[in-house]
Design brief:
Elements (H helix, E strand, L loop, with lengths): L11 H9 L2 H6 L1 H12 L5 H14 L3 H10 L4 H8 L8 H15 L4
Helix pairs in contact: 1-3, 1-4, 4-5, 4-7
């Protein structure tokens, strides 16, 4: 039996890194293996850059959930980001969303 001590929202690249550290469990459990495949496939930046982006987005004022969602989806346009964020946390103003897009350009568009 596993006891959950704490939980956090993490972006896909960070989840991938966590699962790589417990590779034995990934190899033994098909659900964990599928989760690993998913986060590996949909990770859009390195775990290190995702952690930096998560920290900066939270410093800008995004919740951990909203920041992780932005890193997972990496919107490139204001309207796209606004649509993704919707009313999460009561909504975010355009200036803050523009700041988020800058953070994402800085850390999560390395493969382009």
């Amino acid at each position: 039996m596993v006891e959950i001590i704490s939980s956090n929202y993490v972006p896909n690249p960070v989840a991938k890194k966590i699962l790589e550290n417990i590779k034995e469990l990934v190899n033994e459990n098909p659900i964990v293996a599928r989760t690993y495949e998913y986060v590996a496939k949909f990770s859009k930046c390195s775990p290190e850059n995702a952690e930096k982006a998560l920290k900066e987005l939270q410093e800008v004022g995004f919740s951990e959930f909203a920041a992780a969602m932005l890193i997972n989806t990496v919107p490139t346009e204001l309207e796209e980001a606004k649509a993704l964020l919707g009313d999460i946390d009561g909504g975010y103003d355009e200036e803050k969303i523009e700041q988020a897009l800058e953070v994402l350009r800085k850390y999560c568009q390395e493969s382009e």
